Amino acid sequence: MAAPENEDTMILQYIEKALAHARYEIIEDEEPYYGAIPELAGVYATGKTLEECRANLMEVTDGWIIVRLRRGLPIPPIDNCTIEEVIRLDQSVRA
């Protein structure tokens, strides 16, 4: 069952805010672009281009949110943007 549109919008807004906080650097690697979101522990990605790195970082952030919701872990606000508790409860009912 898909999340209602307002929940999807809330999550997309959160991901966009999170990506605005991303820090990027070039590292010596096959995928030299490295990006991380300091406010979200463990959220980082690499890519062959900056665009690929950003797309990968978006996917990692989405997965990080899903894991935190399913485990009932807190999701820190970013720029006053939050993911409401209702979504967390809704996910536990579906599991």
In short:
The chain is an alpha+beta fold and 95 residues long. The chain contains 3 helices and 3 strands. The protein has one domain (5-94): Double Stranded RNA Binding Domain, CATH 3.30.160.
Describe the 3D structure.
The protein has a single domain (5-94), classed as Double Stranded RNA Binding Domain. It is 51% helix and 13% strand. It has helices at 5-20, 50-71, 85-94; strands at residues 23-26, 33-36, 44-47. The model has no long low-confidence stretch (mean pLDDT 87).
**Unreliable residue runs:** none
Strand order of the largest sheet: 1-2-3
Could you give the order of the helices and strands? HEEEHH
Largest sheet: 3 strands, antiparallel
Given the C-alpha coordinates, what overall shape results?
elongated
Q: Name the CATH class.
A: Alpha Beta
Topology:
Blueprint: H1 5-20, E1 23-26, E2 33-36, E3 44-47, H2 50-71, H3 85-94
Antiparallel strand pairs: 1-2, 2-3
Helix pairs in contact: 1-2
Descriptive keywords:
single chain; alpha+beta; 3-stranded antiparallel sheet; 3 strands; 95 residues
